[in-house]
Amino acid sequence: MSGLPKCPKCGSEFTYEDGSNYVCPECAHEWSKDAPAEAGEQAKVFKDAFGNVLVDGDTVTVIKDLKIKGSSSVVKVGTKVKNIRLIDGDHDIDCKIDGIGAMQLKTEFVKKA
């Protein structure tokens, strides 16, 4: 292309200028021309219900009974969930719970163990 930077979100080479911004036509991401190219997006900080920072691999404890959608099962208060994986989205935690299986939880319903 003509020396325009790649999209910091998806890596597309097809960016274009729009006023004082760059725009990616593939993912619709816009960023300022003044922003450094290597800065990219700031990493999201995941915090539990009490403000403790969570990272991948942590063990957390459920602080509220959680009904499982589409099932009559419930994740009980005090259930320990080991080796969590943090993801972007409405539900921040991807995990496996013994006796229930794979599921996603919100960080607001857990505390760091």
Report on the structure:
This protein has 113 residues and is mostly beta strands. It has strands at residues 16-18, 21-23, 30-32, 46-47, 53-54, 60-62, 66-67, 74-75, 80-81, 85-86, 93-97, 101-105, 110-112. The protein has a 3-stranded antiparallel sheet with strand order 1-2-3, with no helix packed on it. The chain has a 3-stranded antiparallel sheet with strand order 9-6-13, with no helix packed on it. Pfam families: YjdM, Zn_Ribbon_YjdM. This is Protein YjdM.
Helix content: under 10%
The counted number of beta strands is 13
Output the strand order for the largest sheet.
1-2-3
Distance between the termini: 51 Å
Unreliably modeled segments: none
Percent of sequence in beta strands: 25-35%
- What is the rounded Rg? 20 Å
Number of helices: 0
- Largest sheet composition: 3 strands, antiparallel
The secondary structure category is: mainly beta
Strand and helix order: EEEEEEEEEEEEE
- Mean of the pLDDT scores? 88
